[in-house]
Each structure stands twice: as structure tokens, then as C-alpha cells.
From TrEMBL:
Polar residues composition bias: residue spans: 1-15
MF terms (GO), sorted A to Z: FAD binding; monooxygenase activity; oxidoreductase activity, acting on paired donors, with incorporation or reduction of molecular oxygen
Protein name: 2-octaprenyl-6-methoxyphenol hydroxylase
UniProtKB keywords: FAD, Flavoprotein, Monooxygenase, Oxidoreductase
Domain of life: Bacteria
Pathway where it operates: Cofactor biosynthesis; ubiquinone biosynthesis
Family named by the database record: Belongs to the UbiH/COQ6 family.
One Pfam family from the record: FAD_binding_3
NCBIfam families, alphabetized: Ubi-OHases (TIGR01988)
Length: 430
């Protein structure tokens, strides 16, 4: 449902309770303006609210209507560190019962019987991650934001049209002429970010000419909480264990024309094409839909910051889903940004000032470059059928399989627990 009021709606059109006095700020001002109410924008607003900072969240669609309309039918593999953040923000509890734990991951290459097996018990007792329905996670985040009605204001529909910085504030003009202002604007408006363009930040884009077909698959064999990643010449095919042990989420990347053809197949044809590529280790398979196709590109912003602007999530870096890490990397942006902003606010510093934003950029650079390089490298290495490359990657898989140190590092990387972590990713309050 759209909000039609001249000023920002105070959450009512999203079903949120009306905000009490958001301290003494006018309705069009807050500590931050967040553009984008996808997974990143909602998580960002919640992390800031928990730190005592207020936000106005702008989206061109009402997030509740988007969830109700099942605009996003995907599931997301949530890493251990992302789960810790969601737990400390109080958003995990509502999705925990429906989340499918991933205990092990098996990586295989088509045409070879060898595989690489990651076992969670190599590094501890915790599952490597959980598969969560995107709609359920957004619903949980929205419910938690409702608890922070005094710090969170929703504006929807609202589309960013112009951005100006004056007298220590960023002013965002919406297409309908409304003006919102804050010391900092956070772009969480996805891979085609308008705020990023308005801030003059350029991007590097790689078109993989691949698209991902997403569906839900019932299978006669128990998945045993094992996630499969099978590399095929057209792209990787992932089957991710859901809570029901005879049901998995499918993310099947293929050359775009092939993906579009596959997506149009009837259920029997789809199952046959899937079994031909994946084999029968999960028994007989049956798609239970709905089905959708997502074009795949790498989009990387040349900077994560500009004058009184910070980028998070896909607006900063949109990755190929080959490693199921896109949102997890965005969660790491959010954890770091929330921490530097909370610390600055506690010290009475300008939260949109250059030193604070530079600190954010500096802390995020290495992780993002590593993730971009690894997902892009894996996509290119595995999405072809050239004989010497095929041989090289099989040797690579065997080496990682046989060297425990490499395996442990890869598992921790997937769990998001490598390196120095900000407080939220350690499961501590911001
Ligand atoms: C097939 C597939 C499978 C994936 N699987 C995984 C996985 O298993 N694990 C994982 O970690 N990641 C995964 N990802 C990546 C993950 O889905 C994304 O990283 C994540 O959804 C990005 O969220 P976001 O909020 O940053 O952007 P988006 O979801 O794109 O949200 C952007 C929001 O901004 C709004 N918006 C856009 N423009 C404007 C504007 N001008 N004004 C106002 N609002 C605007 C939009 O309406 C939207 O609500 C997958 C991706 C794909 C394609």
C-alpha cells in the first residue's frame, strides 16, 4: 500500500505503529536517510536503531506489499557471522524455526567423479550457515523495525531524484519534490543504485551472459543438510538444503538464452533437465515452484563513499551468486558502518564527516576486493569446457580437498568468521 501524504509517512502505511516523537527532529530529518528497503536497507536501519540512531527509509515500493506479493521468491544462505548479527538485532528468532541448517558443502565438477567436501565439524559445532526465505527474513526485520517506531520513519513510494550537500547535511530530493535531510545518506538501493549515480560514483560492470533460474525442488532422498554446488560449463548449479529434508532450494546458473528456455519447461521437462545435469544422488526430483530468472552481472562501485554518502549491499558490490555470499558481504558492510557511526555518535562526532566515512571504506576494502576477485575468478574458471582449464580446476579441487589448512580457511571464509570482526558479527551489541 502506498503512502500518499505530503510529508513522509511515519510507518503507518507499512503497518508499523506511528512514530512517537523522533527526538526533537522534524519529520523530514533524521540521523540518516536510507534509500532502499531491501534486505540491506532494512538490516541497516535496524542496526542503527539499536545503536540509538534514527533513520528515514525510502523505497519506491512498500516493503510489506513487496513481501506479500512475493516479489522476491529467493532464499538466502545466511553465514554464521550474519546469523550472529541477525540474532543480536533480534531478527533471527522469528526465522530460526524455518531455517535449514547447512552442515556440509560438496563441490563437484561435471564430468568428474571427484569432489571437494567441506565438513562443518572441521572447525566446530555450528552449522556453516542456514537457508532462509527472503520474504520471511524481510518480515522479521520489518517487525523488529516496528519495535523501533520512534527511530524509524518509512517513506514509500519515494524515489531519489537529486542529492545536494549543504551546511553539513545531505539533502535528498524525491521525484515528488519532497526533501529529506540528514548528516548521512546511505545508499542501499541495489545494483542499479540511483543514489550512487547521484553521488557521482562510477562502477565497473562485468556481464557474465548468465542468468540464474530459481526454483524449489522436492526430492525422494534425504539431503542430510548437505549443500551441493555442481560446476557445469554453462554455470554453477546449487541445491541448498531447506528445513524439510526432502526439499532444496535450486539456484541454477546457465547461459542466459539456455536459462530462459529451461525456465519455460513444464515440470516434467524441468526435472529431466535437472537430473541430467545433477545426477540422481537426491533421487527423483520434482520442481514445486514458483520459478524465476535473475540476470547475473558483477557491479562494483569504484568507491564506497562520497560526500555525506555511504554505499552498502548490492549498491556497493553486486556479485555472482556462485558462492552464495552477496548478502553476507552486504551484512559485513552494515556491521562495520553501524559500528563506526555508533562510535562517532557516542564521541559527539559528525557521523557524515570525512574521517568517519574513510574509516568505513578502509575497513571494508580488503574483504570486498577478496570476494569480488574470488567470485569473479571462480565464475570464469568453472563456466567453460576448455580441456586445460578443466584439468587445472580438477587439480585445484584435489589440492584443497587434501590440504586441511586450505579447507579450514575456505570453511571459515564461507562462515564469515575469518579476520577481525566488528562487534555485531561477533554477536555483541553495536
Ligand atoms: C539468484 C540469486 C541467489 C542469491 N543467493 C544468495 C545467497 O544464498 N546468499 C547471499 O548472501 N546472497 C545471495 N544473493 C545475493 C543477494 O540476493 C543480494 O546481495 C541482496 O538481495 C541484495 O540486497 P540489497 O538490499 O542490497 O539490494 P536489493 O534487494 O536490490 O534492494 C534494493 C531496494 O532498493 C529499492 N530501490 C531501488 N532503486 C530505488 C530508488 N531509485 N529509490 C528508492 N528505492 C529504490 C528497491 O525497490 C529495493 O527494495 C543471491 C542473488 C541472486 C541473484
Amino acid at each position: 500500500m502506498a503512502s500518499t501524504s505530503k510529508g513522509p509517512s511515519r510507518g503507518t502505511s507499512t503497518g508499523l505503529p506511528p512514530a512517537q516523537a523522533k527526538r526533537d527532529m522534524p519529520q523530514d530529518e533524521a540521523d540518516t536517510v536510507i534509500v532502499g528497503a531491501g534486505l540491506s536497507g532494512l538490516t541497516m536501519a535496524l542496526a542503527l536503531a539499536e545503536a540509538g540512531l534514527s533513520s528515514i527509509i525510502v523505497d519506491r515500493v512498500d516493503p510489506r506489499a513487496a513481501v506479500a506479493g512475493r516479489n522476491d521468491i529467493r532464499t538466502t544462505a545466511i553465514s554464521l557471522s550474519s546469523r550472529r548479527l541477525m540474532t543480536v538485532l533480534g531478527a533471527w528468532q522469528a526465522v530460526a524455526d524455518g531455517a535449514g541448517p547447512i552442515h556440509d558443502i560438496r563441490v563437484s565438477d561435471s564430468g568428474s567423479s571427484r569432489y571437494l567436501h567441506y565438513d562443518h565439524s572441521t572447525v566446530g559445532d555450528e552449522p556453516m550457515g542456514h537457508i532462509v526465505d527472503n520474504g520471511a527474513l524481510k518480515t522479521s526485520l520489518l517487525a523488529r523495525l516496528a519495535d523501533h517506531g520512534d527511530r524509524v520513519t518509512f517513506v514509500e513510494p519515494g524515489s531519489a531524484a537529486a542529492l545536494a550537500v549543504t551546511a553539513g547535511r545531505a539533502c535528498l530530493t524525491l521525484e515528488d519534490g519532497r526533501v529529506l535531510s540528514a548528516p548521512l545518506v546511505i545508499a542501499a538501493d541495489g545494483r542499479g543504485s540511483r543514489v550512487r549515480a547521484l553521488a557521482g560514483i562510477r562502477t565497473t560492470t562485468v556481464d557474465y551472459h548468465q542468468s540464474a533460474v530459481v526454483d524449489t525442488i522436492d526430492h525422494t532422498e534425504d539431503h542430510r543438510n548437505l549443500a551441493h554446488e555442481r560446476f557445469l560449463p554453462g554455470g554453477p548449479l546449487a541445491l541448498l538444503p531447506l528445513l524439510d529434508r526432502n526439499r532444496s532450494a535450486l539456484v541454477w546458473s546457465e547461459r542466459t538464452a539456455v536459462a530462459e528456455r529451461i525456465a519455460q519447461l513444464d515440470d516434467a521437462g524441468f526435472a529431466a533437465a535437472l537430473e541430467e545435469r545433477f545426477g540422481d544422488s537426491l533421487g527423483t526430483m520434482r520442481p514445486v515452484g514458483p520459478r524465476a530468472v535473475y540476470p547475473l552481472t558483477l557491479t562494483l562501485a569504484e568507491s564506497g563513499i562520497a560526500d555525506r554518502v555511504a554505499l552498502v549491499g548490492d549498491a556497493f558490490h553486486a556479485l555472482h551468486p556462485i558462492a552464495g555470499q552477496g548478502f553476507n558481504v552486504g551484512v559485513r558492510d552494515i556491521a562495520v558502518l553501524a559500528e563506526v557511526l555508533a562510535d562517532a555518535a557516542r564521541l559527539g562526532l559528525d557521523i557524515g564527516g570525512v574521517p568517519v566515512l574513510r574509516d568505513y571504506q578502509r575497513q571494508r576494502r580488503f574483504d570486498i576486493m577478496t570476494m569480488v576477485a574470488s567470485t569473479d575468478g571462480l565464475t570464469r574458471l568453472f563456466s567453460n569446457d576448455i580441456a586445460p582449464v578443466r584439468t587445472a580446476r580438477r587439480i585445484g579441487l584435489s589440492v584443497v580437498q587434501q590440504v586441511p589448512m586450505f579447507k579450514r580457511a575456505a570453511i571459515r571464509h564461507a562462515m564469515g568468521t575469518l579476520g577481525t570482526l566488528p562487534r555485531l558479527l561477533r554477536g555483541e551489541p553495536v
